[in-house]
Amino acid sequence: MGHWLYRNIVEPGKLPLLLALGAFVSTFVVTRVITRLIRAGKGPFGNVKAGGLHIHHVVPGVVLTVFGGFGAVASSRHGFGADAFAVVFGIGAGLVLDEFALILHLDDVYWTEAGRKSVEVVVVTAALVGLMLAGFSPFGVNEMSASELQDRGTVILSVAVNFVFSLVALSKGKGRIALFGVIVPFVALIGAVRLARPGSYWARRFYRRRPRARARAGLRAYRHDRRWSRPRRAIQDWIGGKPDTTPAQLPDAGRGPGPGER
């Protein structure tokens, strides 16, 4: 394990990226646990306020992200400095993206249906960073044996082929399949060969004069959403918490309550 870690992570200079990813995921998990405890009125935690103004955790997140990002740029590629700044950046990014929906809507939608966007963005970001770690690990490794070159060449070819299929799946309106298809073999192929979703670029371009194809695509999309919407929502609720059934009334215009103020 130690040899693999050195050859694939340390030697190519990817340790800061691994540390940033670990800090990012850990920060998101810890933050969600704390906000759910605040929402339930349990534990010693509470909202942070200054002069009556609730300070969302996106604020220290922005500060940490800026500090860690500029610090990483100023530091060398290797060494303790780069690793430390990577951890700071990962913590800041986790705090910021945990409240991505608030930034998107400029409103406190943390525990609403719109707040699910934060969970989706965090999952997508973690998957993309994981792809950077796994998919491009051959670069920067020195003195590889013939078997290592062959294995890594196979990985690169597989990623490239999956990426092409992912582009086709993306044009068919299947964003999640396109994303994970780059990482998981055959997932993008399934999305690429199946019917496009209504309203996608592929449907507008190739189904324009095919009414039967448009009808089949609409029916399949309806059945798919009906079948998988509930499990998908259950997973999102398990990760980020179940949203409120009705949006809470905001006490002040322009300033929403904190995630735990309900």
UniProtKB/TrEMBL annotation:
Region (Disordered): 234-262
Keyword Oxidoreductase in record: no
Membrane as UniProt keyword: yes
Keywords, sorted A to Z: Membrane, Transmembrane, Transmembrane helix
Species name: Streptomyces naganishii JCM 4654
Name under which the protein is recorded: Integral membrane protein
Membrane-crossing residue ranges in chain numbering: 15-34, 54-73, 85-106, 118-141, 153-171, 177-196
